[in-house]
Design goal:
The complex is a heterotrimer of chains A (289), B (400) and C (326).
Chain A lengths: L1 H28 L6 H18 L4 H30 L6 H20 L13 E4 L3 E4 H23 L1 H11 L1 H6 L4 H23 L10 H15 L4 H21 L6 H16 L11
Antiparallel strand pairs in A: 1-2
Helix pairs in contact in A: 1-5, 1-6, 1-8, 1-9, 1-10, 2-3, 2-4, 2-8, 2-9, 3-8, 5-6, 6-8, 9-10, 10-11
Chain B lengths: L1 H27 L5 E9 L6 H20 L3 E3 L2 E11 L4 H13 L4 E3 L4 H14 L2 E3 L22 H16 L3 E7 L2 H16 L3 E9 L7 H9 L4 E5 L6 H10 L5 E3 L6 H8 L7 E4 L9 H14 L6 H4 L1 H12 L7 H10 L2 E2 L8 E2 L1 E2 L1 H4 L4 E2 L3 E7 L2 E8 L3
Parallel strand pairs in B: 1-3, 1-4, 4-5, 6-7, 6-8, 8-9
Antiparallel strand pairs in B: 2-3, 10-15, 11-12, 13-14, 15-16
Helix pairs in contact in B: 2-10, 3-4, 5-6, 8-9
Chain C lengths: L2 H26 L3 H24 L7 H19 L3 H23 L4 H21 L18 E3 L2 E4 L8 H24 L2 H11 L1 H6 L4 H27 L9 H14 L6 H15 L7 H15 L18
Helix pairs in contact in C: 1-6, 2-6, 2-9, 2-10, 2-11, 3-4, 3-5, 3-9, 4-9, 7-9, 10-11
Classes of the chains: A mainly alpha (289), B alpha/beta (400), C mainly alpha (326).
Chain lengths: 289, 400, 326
Amino acid sequence: MEQIIANGLYLGAQYALIALGLTLIFALMNVLNFAHGQLYVIGGFVTYTIYGQLGLPYVVALAATAISLALLGGIIEKFLFRPVIRRSSREESTMLLAAGIAFLLDAIILLVFGEKQRGVPKILNGVLNLDFRLIMPYDRILICGLAIFFITAFILYMQYSKTGRALRALAQDRTAAYLMGVDVERYSMIGFALGAMLAGIVGGLLVTITGVNLGMGGPTSIKAFMMVMIGGAGVISGAIAGGLILGMMESVGLSVFSEYGDVTYLVIFATLMVFLAIRPQGLMGKPWG
Amino acid sequence: MITKRSARLRHVLVGLVGAVAIAAGSVAAQAANKELKIGFVGVTSGPAAAWGISNVRSMQARAAWINETGGVKIGGTTYDVNIVTFDDQKDPKRAIAGMEKMAQEGIHYVVGPNVDDGAAAVRPVAERNGIIYFPYAFPKALYTKPASNAVLGMVANYQSGPAIYTYLKDKKGVKTVAFIAANESDPLSQRDGGVAAAKALGLKVVSDSVTYQVDTTDFTPVITPVIKTRPDLLVLSGVAPANAPQIIRSARELGFQGLISTETAQDATVLREGAGSLADGFISVGGASTPEIASDAMKEFVARYTKMFGEYNDESNTKVYALEYILETLKANPAAMNDVEAFKTTMDTFSAPNPYMKGDAVLKYVGTSSFGQRRQVAVPLVVNEYRDGKFETLFVAEVD
Amino acid sequence: MGRTGRFLGVGIFLVAVLGLVPWLIEATGRWDFYYTLTSVALLSIASAGVWLTFYIGRINIGQGAYALAGGYVSAILITKYDVSFWLTVPLAGLFCAVLSVFIGLPILRLRGVYFAMVTLVLTEVARLTALALPITNGAKGIASIPLPSAVTVGGITLIPDFAELANVKLAFYYVAVVLMIACYAGLYRLVNSRLGHLCRSLQQNEELAASIGVNVTYLRIVAYAISSFLGGIGGAIFISISQSVYPSSFQVADSINFMLNCFLGGLGYVFGPMLGTLVLYFGWDLLFEAGRFQLLIYASLLIFLMVALPNGLLSLRLPARWRRGG
């Protein structure tokens, strides 16, 4: 039992961090960013290159990852999303652009980093073992802690900094924020960069546990969509709740249904659909987000 | 209007592609020998890219080597080998398109596809167009009559599984086995085959129902219930090279002490980076690159591959053979160049020395006991154990 | 462009796809294009369904589920119950339509990204169901499905047995293209009918539509059922070409592609999905020459097209009267 909860918490913390970036971008620009998972993968590969290949300290690698992904996010927003959003008649059209970017990043990852699964040396050795009831390697505990730290830092930043307030205003009502003198274009770019940075940070954290490969991008995006959907699109607390719930569902489901094999995920997905049919805006979302 | 518009756009696209093709063609045109095209249809992008890429690169490395040393002589004519590749994105519908493309190019010998659904989907096209193809997929229906154009390019898990289990039962005292597989066609079929083989050997199967999504990033919750059954041997059925180190790491960190094995080929670097010393003792199926059995040709192949692509992939060991078989069989019967029926006839009697392995191993077509006809390449069944960043050969067996 | 112009356009299109294309293929010897164009026709039928859900204001990323379901229905009927392929196609469509009513009733209440994401999950649910059910033969799939058999009425052969045809590819091409033409003609008719106008009112404002007495729930279900019907028949015919069906025959990537086809062609144009499918699918095939840079070039072109023409390819200087909706 303890093991199941600990697994769920660990999964939930990393999921929540992935979902945060996605929901932020969605809240600001109404863009369902299909390339979110690819940003996560690039984050993992950047950390792999700096920490695993060049041998620089892990903290340096993580910081470099955050910066490079923020830059990448800013560029994508400024040169790709902004012109398309301005000129398209239906805002869903950005989905094609997002998917195109996802393909492009996949292609670049394959050409630059290769097709193999990559991993880095463990950042911490040893395993916490409470009587075989709860087993948790120390590096997992550290990563889980770091994930929670970044989530907290992000919430505080959004709550108390000037940028954070501007972003929240933008998310609530774009037109009103514009009329109140918020530089909409600038903050859209900052928001996108922040979202991309979060994705990169998760990649940088998880590469130490699970490694990274080029195929993780698409599925990660889809998982992040599910979390955002559970919690409510465009709501920060919703993303965190969604991440934790999905993590717990996987952990508990895999345990309870282990006898029946293939049905575990079927049950999870079906539950999700039933849940949304009952509560169409997710846990905390605005209706008709 | 619409027709015109689409036609115009198509012209632009065709033009663009044409430019690329001409650029590529001008490079190829320098070769003096005649050209022998061999096809590859498989997955070289997306999550499963590692399978196809290790496959196509081993073909490209071998072709470049042949061409550099003057080409291959078949029936008095010398050819340069040109590998024509098609990325099917692991989509059976694309695989059909790929096979059509091969037929269009006048190719009669194709390596791939890499998965069950693709291999089944291309069968009608291959048979209609006279193409012999070498899939890396295990369903027996592909190789038993009335099917006749597919040749299994490797050792199937229902052949390697029993050999590995017998060895572990006799040498390591394994009594209980647990299976875990991704919830996809190939791994699930391989798991079912493995379970049947283990039961036939009198092993007790303690868990065979746990599956995982291919996109799983954390295997601890997946593997926890399996570890609780405390098996002597944990079999990772049809495990993708990307997932193997993660599963091993999760299992070991949860305190699993037993053996772990798989019937697919793995890469030592991936295991070292992903699981480090936790992967020590992991048993997998390999080709012939371990120092104990690798011939000088194999060593040179690895060196050339590494030079060409920057890094070797141990999965390529098992995939170097298909091209060799095609070329050697063509040499044995030049009439098969454009006539796959002649190729099929030759398959029954064909035999040539295996250049990649020390000793007197031979290349020949086998499979009569599994498929009722010779529709499998005889590659040595090399079972490896991972230790300290590289593979060591546990034992070598033959498939009939 | 008046009525005559439109007739002329349709006429040119029919001559092109039914006569010119096969003639060009014979003349140039590019036999492989038959399969590619057949795929385009079938995928654009499924994409047309997705387009229809867009038309009522829903982003549908779940068409792969219905294509897979349709494929399995056809495969099971043919292999287990010996039903003629030609009968299984409409049956597969009907099965999907009925299925979609049950699924659609709850989920069509969702809007925007919620609907999009639920349908995305639906595709994965379909794959896992196919893996778990005994009738679908689980992971092993259904292989060696026979080719379409002959149809004879009163001793006259209407459709020959495909297994005895010299050029099966051409036969499948005609089947797919004729169906595609029928499907788009129907779609065009639908969009310009009273039902179509009502659907467009849903796209713009559901509350308003409901307030003036439009039965919103009924309309949504009808549109979604038609959409799924098209997905089902598209899948069913594909299965008979590959003569096999696996849980992975249609997957999430396909669902996303169906949606992208609509976007690329232009959401405001009935024939958008057809053109979108042609460019996306054919484009990938043509780029086959680019080898390992295929995906890179493909993605770059896609992004370029989107940045240049954010409202789809057909937004390129088309007479206003061809525009529908949006």
